[in-house]
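Meet my pick.
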Amino acid sequence: MIEADRVSERRAVHRGVERPPWSPAQLIALLIGIGYIVLGAVALARTGIDLNRIGPHVEVAGLHHTQVVGGIEVLFGLLMLAAAAVPAGSRGAMSFLGIVALGFGLIVVIQPTSFHRVLGVHEANGWLFVITGAVAMLFAMASPVFFGRSRVGYTRRAEVVDY
């Protein structure tokens, strides 16, 4: 075989990779969600789930709970995790959940005895909800959404034809 008969062609192949947008609010929503899921799950594990009665009052991390508030905390945590999954959508969901937590927390701080029998909450629970709601709203409003730049890589593909 003669060396001149071998034809080699090299050409560049374009391959683009897009980075998804992200926001620091997603990290905050993730941390809040995990924290509330753990808090609520421990409360539910200690109280048990009995749909026929409210159940006992237990203390988890220095906060008083019943099975009802434990379930509410697990649901709130799951919704925060859902908000953390979408960068642009997380801002609206985090704002809404923050407003709900802030409002409920203020009501519990102002009048904790009204909810003590059913929810087992005290003033400290209300302050936790107020702080959580304020942090969620602050990060939802102030955190920017970073849009990733497209990263392009070039590779060479060699085609060798032998005659």
